[in-house]
Write a structure and sequence with these properties.
Oligomer: heterodimer
Strand content of chain B: under 5%
Radius of gyration of chain A: 26 Å
Structural class of chain A: mainly alpha
Mean pLDDT of chain A: 88
Shape of chain A: flat
Strand content of chain A: under 5%
Largest sheet of chain B: none
Helix content of chain A: over 70%
Structural class of chain B: mainly alpha
Number of strands of chain B: 0
Mean pLDDT of chain B: 86
Number of helices of chain A: 16
Distance between the termini of chain B: 25 Å
Largest interface: A-B, 109 and 108 residues
Helix content of chain B: over 70%
Number of helices of chain B: 14
Largest sheet of chain A: none
Chain lengths: ~290, ~300
């Protein structure tokens, strides 16, 4: 755009060009100083993870340590806290939640979008009502119920409250509504059952919405501290954020290099996934637009 | 459509309309049933239980309880911890909402016009959204250390006085708010970028012809009004996110120093899951719900209009 404009128009006077250059420099100055603020804790984390204890709090900040201490820091982080176990727990919990969310929400969303059945308007109103309730609100009664059932400190207790995502139902319903009725009718006349219509015909076309929701769900539950903190006291079951909290609270919390190494290990999976699938993440946030 | 199909398939094989209606009803009920049951079990029943609990004096493990009417609500109104928590939460929200919305709007506008550097800036500003806040909060805590921390050393070398960001009562909420803004700027920026790319280019050209080519004129005449719905949505979600502040308090300050960073959700967590005062925590949860409800309803309303394909 800018190039074509300069070709088409007569060359701008020097003063105008100077002003443009200055404003461009100003824009980048603002953006770069913001970027420094955004990156600061990441840079601090990565550099501290490879520094010996004496260098972390030195008066002059160095990006690269005089003495490389990365092996020792990562080694003591991995040996004193079961960090890989935390990551595995995060995988189990996020995966379990996502699979059930999709299995429950997709048929319901299809029914709300395309089938007429008694109670449909009421169900949709309840879905909208559910959207207005923060996840922290039902946690107290759920905790009491789980305590009575004796399922605290299990994977199930960490996942169960999130099996139903009203947001997934809402999002998929919007998506399914625009699916052409003619194709569904034609499939019915060919004798295809409703179950197959959902999973074989409609779902493949809803891939963007499913991808968007999956990213939203995994990011939310991977980073959730509140609920795991409530229902889990067994270190072996801790998810990454909860594990990080135990780690920081332990006597090892004063070994800053190891703690930074641990933080790096805990943060890496999602950040790496984001860097690889940047476009999907951003498209997903744009589509779902909710936390 | 039906006539075509009738010609192809034998007449008796095509399901009559009434039979199709029955299939739809049964399938609809069957498809909706698991979701409905889970909705009742994990959402609606707990909410009813919450309201019920708030009128009792139930504590976890107690064999007996009795109704106490509105006593819990009265206690909450008098409770200095709760008063402090509400004030602190509102102060936090009052910093994070304007800060988080306006900074991300500025960043989005500046990034939107970039061509080669846009992707790089996008990644950098979005990075905190995907990173685990607990891990990053621990890093912030190191950097904010009153004497040894990176930030205080930088302040000192620039000739400023050191500040005890997390142990000075007047600084702790603004510091947590800065971290809160750090975490959500990228998220809001992505929403604003989507809003910006939806503005038709010819609107700017029309304003240029009218002689208002100054960037501020363009912003006031086109960008700001056209971004209205996006700004509204971003403001509402930011409010809800900010009101739910918990993680940074739980990891970095635990409500301290001297209650200066006690916030509502953390108070609920302590009452309910540390002291097991279930009925009182239920009452506090209702207070929390009351604060967020207006904004959640607004968010749902906008979502219902916004998400269309």
């Amino acid at each position: 755009m800018r190039i074509s404009a300069t070709i088409a128009r007569p060359p701008a006077p020097v003063a105008v060009r100077m002003r443009r250059l200055v404003s461009l420099a100003l824009v980048h100055a603002v953006l770069i100083s913001g970027a420094v603020f955004m990156l600061l804790p990441f840079v601090f984390m990565l550099t501290s993870a490879i520094k010996p204890p004496g260098e972390i709090f030195e008066a002059t900040f160095r990006l690269w340590p005089r003495q490389f201490y990365g092996w020792q820091n990562f080694d003591s982080a991995l040996n004193t806290a079961p960090l890989l176990r935390f990551l595995f727990n995060g995988l189990v919990v996020c995966g379990g939640i996502l699979v059930v969310q999709l299995l429950v929400a997709i048929p319901c969303a299809y029914a709300l979008a395309k089938l007429s059945f008694p109670g449909r308007p009421i169900l949709f109103s309840l879905v909208l009502l559910g959207l207005c309730i923060p996840v922290q609100a039902p946690s107290l009664p759920l905790y009491i119920a789980f305590a009575e059932l004796g399922i605290l400190n299990t994977y199930l207790s960490m996942m169960l409250p999130f099996f139903l995502s009203v947001f997934a139902i809402f999002l998929f319903r919007q998506f399914f509504k625009s699916y052409p009725d003619e194709i569904i009718q034609a499939a019915r006349l060919d004798g295809v059952g409703e179950f197959e219509i959902v999973w074989r015909i409609v779902v493949p076309s809803a891939w963007p919405a499913i991808a968007a929701f999956s990213i939203f769900s995994v990011v939310a539950h991977w980073n959730d501290l509140y609920w795991p903190l409530i229902v889990v006291s067994d270190t072996k079951l801790a998810t990454p954020p909860l594990g990080m909290m135990y780690f920081a609270d332990s006597e090892l919390g004063s070994n800053y290099g190891a703690l930074a190494a641990g933080a790096t290990i805990i943060t890496a999976p999602l950040v790496v996934a984001f860097l690889i699938a940047r476009r999907h993440f951003i498209a997903g946030i744009t589509m779902t637009g909710i936390k | 459509m039906t006539t075509v199909a009738a010609q192809i398939t034998p007449l008796d094989a095509a399901p009559p309309a009434s039979r199709q209606r029955w299939i739809e009803r049964l399938a609809g009920l069957g498809f909706a049933a698991p979701a409905f049951i889970l909705l009742v079990l994990t959402n609606l029943a707990p909410l009813a239980a919450l309201a019920f609990l708030s009128f009792t004096n139930y504590e976890l493990g107690a064999l007996d309880f009795s109704f106490v009417g509105l006593k819990n609500f009265g206690t909450a109104l008098q409770d200095p911890v709760i008063r402090r928590s509400v004030t602190n939460t509102l102060l936090y929200v009052a910093i994070v909402v304007p800060g988080g919305v306006l900074i991300s709007l500025l960043v989005a506008i500046l990034i939107h016009r970039r061509k080669r550097t846009r992707a790089l800036y996008e990644v950098i500003y979005f990075l905190p959204v995907t990173s685990t806040l607990i891990a990053m909060a621990t890093m912030w805590q190191f950097m904010l250390h009153p004497t040894l921390g990176l930030i205080n050393q930088a302040l000192k070398s620039l000739g400023f006085a050191e500040a005890a960001f997390l142990s000075e009562p007047r600084l702790v909420i603004p510091t947590l708010a800065a971290i809160g803004i750090w975490q959500l700027v990228g998220f809001n920026m992505v929403l604003f970028l989507a809003g910006l790319s939806a503005i038709p280019r010819d609107l700017y050209e029309a304003v240029d012809i009218d002689g208002a080519s100054h960037p501020i004129d363009r912003f006031l005449k086109v960008t700001w009004p056209m971004l209205g719905p996006t700004t509204m949505f971003v403001t509402v979600t930011t409010f809800i996110t900010a009101f739910k502040i918990f993680d940074t308090v739980a990891v970095m300050t635990r409500g301290g120093p001297g209650g200066a960073s006690e916030v509502l959700l953390y108070a609920i967590y302590l009452e309910g899951f540390q002291y097991f005062h279930m009925s009182y925590a239920a009452t506090l949860t209702l207070v929390f719900l009351a604060f967020t409800l207006v904004f959640s309803v607004l968010q749902t309303f906008i979502l219902d209009r916004r998400v269309h394909y």
